[in-house]
């Protein structure tokens, strides 16, 4: 997971019932992430029983299909009360009645290079000309094609275990690009050969800020940016967010599929320091599909405006045309 783990809940479901049913995919990584959520809930609600409900998603069976659909359906059918998801796998616009209800402290948000054993000691810069790099992300591929034009990029599918097996047991790929967070959660940090900086490859979701409660505004910022830009996992849109000294920074970029055409801009806004905020949002106020509890209203408003303003600037500079071509190419495929 690229990032931050989110509880994806249906509005009206409350964490005060005797049993909470937590939906998750069956993959090992998904189960590990779900367990961490369950442990946090147990700390908050020790008297509430939990039941983890693993299910096969269409994404597990048909690897080029959106991963969230089956979990959404389980929520609609009231078979589970919440599901745990990676934000990168959620649609930009959530279905009616759904919301992102909680954000866990995030892991390392960067992308990582995992080399084929025969290439140990290399980096993307030093790999031979025409080396093939595997990635399932249009966002990563578009940025890395621009940054490392001597390399070739090829789609690779499957869960984390499957991708590593394809890398190690065949000679199809010189390296693959994965989320550092997923490798760390699986206990496979030793497989990370290189961590990519935002200059090489911006990640898809906001960086985890340490200044609470304004850090909760990051999800709102991202949602406003992507929704206004009409971006998502089917087009190469990259976002990097950060909180420093109660300033919220947002860098956004759009890329053509081959990385040859791109636009990148940055903006920032001030957010109110926690010690100056007496009144917090006591009830969830939903903004762009995110229900942010205990986040100052002024921080929510600033984050949403920042996301919209940056998307508007990129569109004015021609981002819409770049994304239109990318969508048409994907539809043709």
Automatic annotation (TrEMBL):
Q: Which coenzyme or cofactor does it need?
A: dipyrromethane
Q: Recall the GO molecular function terms of this protein's record.
A: hydroxymethylbilane synthase activity
GO CC, one annotated term: cytoplasm
Q: Name one Pfam family in it.
A: Porphobil_deamC
SUPFAM superfamilies documented for this protein: Periplasmic binding protein-like II, Porphobilinogen deaminase (hydroxymethylbilane synthase), C-terminal domain
The keyword Endoplasmic reticulum belongs to this UniProt entry's keyword annotation: no
Porphobilinogen deaminase C-terminal domain location is 221-267
Please verify whether the record's keywords include Transferase: yes
Q: Which domain of life is it from?
A: Eukaryota
Q: Which GO terms describe its biological process?
A: heme biosynthetic process
For this protein, what is the EC number?
2.5.1.61
Q: Which residues form the Porphobilinogen deaminase N-terminal domain?
A: 20-208
What InterPro entries does the record point to? HemC, Porphobilin_deaminase_N, Porphobilinogen_deaminase_C, Porphobilinogen_deaminase_C_sf
Q: Keywords in UniProt for this one?
A: Porphyrin biosynthesis, Transferase
Identify its protein family.
Answer: Belongs to the HMBS family.
Looking up PANTHER family in the UniProt record yields: PORPHOBILINOGEN DEAMINASE (PTHR11557:SF0)
Which NCBIfam families did the record assign?
hemC
| The protein, known as | hydroxymethylbilane synthase
User: What lineage is on file?
Assistant: Eukaryota, Metazoa, Chordata, Craniata, Vertebrata
